[in-house]
Write a structure and sequence with these properties.
heterodimer, A: alpha+beta, three-stranded antiparallel beta sheet, two-stranded antiparallel ribbon, B: 444 residues, alpha+beta
């Protein structure tokens, strides 16, 4: 369940240091512990080793997603994202994939919606190139969620310049600003 | 395996709605596996399939359903590997999932009634009866059966009563019920206009392809994985006095009060949807199945000027404003219990409410999602400080916003109109599976 955004003051930047587990108090979510909403909202950092020889395949997914969003700018709307960052990096001879997302739904809902999105659009997931990713993810969404939870590295610090504000609220504020500008133009 | 529905093996409650005005739930505990199996074997011929029930509705006066908790399956002697094959949320049970469901504070299992939170709760037998006379007769018959089955105890029971007027289904608050039910593909039913297409059977019945084309292989052995389902039971007390006080407090006239009631629900108490009748009630619309569910939100009411974004209907069925709706649908069955509180009467302190079942193939994906994300997420639709005004966990600190031009109205300090008084997760086996469970241990 989300925290009450109204009790937070968006004008006051805020930082939150988190314990090692990623939460202060163990609260059960549907598939495991619930991670708290922080000044940087909900999110995760998934880090997993990619299968040998798959680096270019993983990189190509960047183009796939770019094209999908260009064709339908709202194709990821269901995930309620602020930002996504996909990074590849090496440790020794292995290459690792880091998937960082900041979003406004809870962790489990994000993952469930993402599985459904990949399945519905026919886009196979970039995750299939990761070591240990369940082969039966399409028929067993719970295994997908388990993999994500097992590879999540919780933050120990999160910061928000405009804390606890959802993407929807930001878009509303920008729309309001645009409407006011139009109104002022019309009054000239 | 065929994806044609096996009507002769699926328990009737999944696919039919009995013409009952009353009924009774009995919650059982098995102290002895053999006694439990004997009880099941003896009651089996009373448990009707959908086919059987459908063919005999006119001549029949009672309809029986049997289901088990995970502890109950264990108590019947199901082997450990098979017990382990059930999904985690069912194994843990509703009490252990309380935090996820929002059953905290006054709704926490420690406050539940009728031993509903007891680990000794093993089975439920659901009786729907055409009238009170038949209910009493069946109650007597069941009592006799229990005397013959050693170690089978009734932990508690609940009598069901329709609440007047009896010509349509509604709850104690007066809201018309049974307006928006999913239809299963191949069931022979046609969805009412606006209800969406029929859904794949696997969303509700185990062993059939679901909306993603997958067939759940759980639970094991195979005989349990076919034609069964899961039922979340909720005993929800309705605080009718508090509800009516609230309406009077926020509405000067009778019409104003009706509008407040409609805004909380998303429909007038007559059933007429606010999207189609935003300003005044239209009882003829409410009663008309061809029209009363034929609406959407995204284009017809994006800002919630008709149906507030946090209203009960909009949370429980966001229609075209949520993703993957076809994977979140649920079948609802059940009835009201407790005495009717006359319109002009003051609160009498007696418990009354709804004792209902939510039936779905995945408790975690369907029922728990609806409770966790739709009913009890305070920030649903960016609302910030709200939960479902009818079934959400309310402790007097939250609000309810009614969008309006030029400015919205905020109802502060919403009281709890309902309290969770009990609940449990049950497995609803098919008839062959019931026979298998009754025969466990018979070879040893």
């Amino acid at each position: 369940m989300s925290d009450d955004a109204k009790t937070h003051d968006w004008t006051k930047p805020a930082a939150m240091a988190l314990p090692k587990e990623g939460y202060f108090k163990l609260e059960q979510g549907r598939y495991g512990p619930t991670y708290p909403r922080t000044p940087a909202n909900h999110g995760f950092t998934i880090i997993a080793k990619i299968k040998p020889g798959k680096e270019q395949t993983v990189r190509d997914y960047g183009n796939t997603i770019e094209k999908a969003v260009a064709a339908d700018p709202h194709c990821l709307a269901v995930l309620k994202l602020h930002y996504l960052r996909w990074v590849l990096f090496d440790i020794g001879t292995d290459t690792y994939f880091m998937y960082q997302g900041i979003f406004d739904t809870d962790f489990d809902k994000y993952t469930e919606d993402a599985v459904a999105l990949f399945a519905a659009t026919g886009i196979t997931t970039v995750f299939t190139n990761l070591v240990g990713f369940p082969e039966d993810w399409k028929t067993n969404p719970t295994s997908f969620i388990k993999f994500v939870r097992e590879h999540q590295r919780p933050s120990f610090l999160e910061y928000g310049e405009y804390p606890f504000v959802t993407a929807e609220e930001i878009k509303k504020a920008l729309k309001l600003k645009a409407s006011f500008s139009t109104m002022l133009d019309q009054m000239q | 395996m065929s994806s044609e529905l096996e009507f002769d093996d699926i328990q009737h409650i999944l696919l039919t709605r009995a013409p009952a005005l009353t009924g009774r739930y009995e919650f059982l505990s098995f102290d002895d596996p053999a006694g439990g199996r004997m009880w099941l074997a003896r009651i089996l011929d009373k448990v009707q399939s959908a086919k059987d029930a459908g063919a005999t509705f006119a001549s029949n006066n009672r309809w029986v359903t049997v289901a088990f908790t995970w502890n109950g399956l264990k108590a019947l002697g199901l082997d450990i590997p098979f017990l382990e094959s059930f999904p985690p949320e069912f194994k843990q049970g509703m009490v252990a999932r309380a935090e996820i469901l929002g059953d905290t504070g006054a709704n926490a299992p420690e406050h539940w009634t009728a031993e509903m939170a007891s680990p000794d709760l093993h089975a439920i037998v659901i009786l729907f009866a055409r009238d009170a006379e038949e209910r009493v007769r069946c109650e007597g018959e069941h009592k006799k059966l229990l005397l013959e089955c050693p170690g089978v105890r009734v932990l508690s029971s609940l009598d069901l009563e329709a609440t007047p007027p009896f010509d349509y289904a509604h709850d104690h608050f007066g809201y018309r019920d049974r307006l928006s039910q999913p239809v299963i593909e191949g069931s022979g039913e046609e969805p009412t206009p606006g209800s969406g297409g029929p859904l794949k059977a696997g969303e509700f019945i185990l062993g059939y392809p679901d909306e993603e084309g997958n067939i759940s292989g759980q639970p094991q052995p195979d005989i349990l994985a076919r034609n069964g389902s899961y039922m979340a039971y909720r005993r929800l007390e309705e605080h009718v006095g508090a509800f009516r006080d609230f309406l009077r407090q926020h509405g000067m006239t009778k019409d104003d009060q009706e509008l407040v009631a409609a805004k909380l629900m998303g429909r007038w108490r007559s059933g007429a949807p606010l999207v189609l009748a935003p300003d005044r009630d239209d009882p003829a619309l409410g009663a008309n199945q061809e029209r009363n569910n034929n609406f959407n939100y995204k284009n017809e009411d994006p800002h919630g000027y008709a149906v507030p974004l946090g209203s009960h209907c909009r949370r429980m069925n966001p229609r075209d404003t949520a993703a993957n709706m076809n994977r979140r649908r649920m079948i609802r069955r059940g009835a009201t219990y407790g005495p009717h509180l006359a319109e002009d009467a003051t609160e009498d302190g007696q418990e009354r409410g709804i004792a209902a079942f939510v039936i779905c193939a995945s408790l975690v994906r369907q029922f728990e999602f609806a409770q966790n994300v739709w009913a009890n997420d305070r920030n649903f639709h960016e609302l910030g400080n709200e939960r479902d005004p009818i079934i959400g966990n309310q402790d007097g600190t939250l609000e309810f916003k009614i969008p309006n031009r030029p400015i919205r109205k905020t109802l502060k300090s919403l009281p709890a109109f309902t309290s969770v008084r009990g609940g449990a997760y049950f497995f609803l086996p098919g008839l062959k599976a019931l026979k298998y469970l009754a025969s466990l241990g018979s070879t040893s």
